[in-house]
Design the sequence.
């Protein structure tokens, strides 16, 4: 009887499909996408911090140089 029900479901397009596998694949794909997005965000933020810090260090070095330089060096 189960075989008959399965055959009828298949014939009318109501065949049961492994939804759990598809859902798991979608979750894994979504998680990978989120991880890549998070990594890009963190990398971008880190690059911004490094760039800003470098700018401040350069300005501080210029300030120290100008404050300590002899008049001829300015």
Sequence:
């Amino acid at each position: 009887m189960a075989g008959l029900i399965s055959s009828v479901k298949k014939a009318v397009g109501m065949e049961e499909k492994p939804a759990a596998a598809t859902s798991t694949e979608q979750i894994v794909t979504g998680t990978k996408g989120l991880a890549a997005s998070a990594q890009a965000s963190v990398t971008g933020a880190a690059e911004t911090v490094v760039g800003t810090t470098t700018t401040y260090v350069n300005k501080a070095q210029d300030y120290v140089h100008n404050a300590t330089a002899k008049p001829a060096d300015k």
Summary: The CA atoms of residues 10 and 17 lie 10 Å apart.
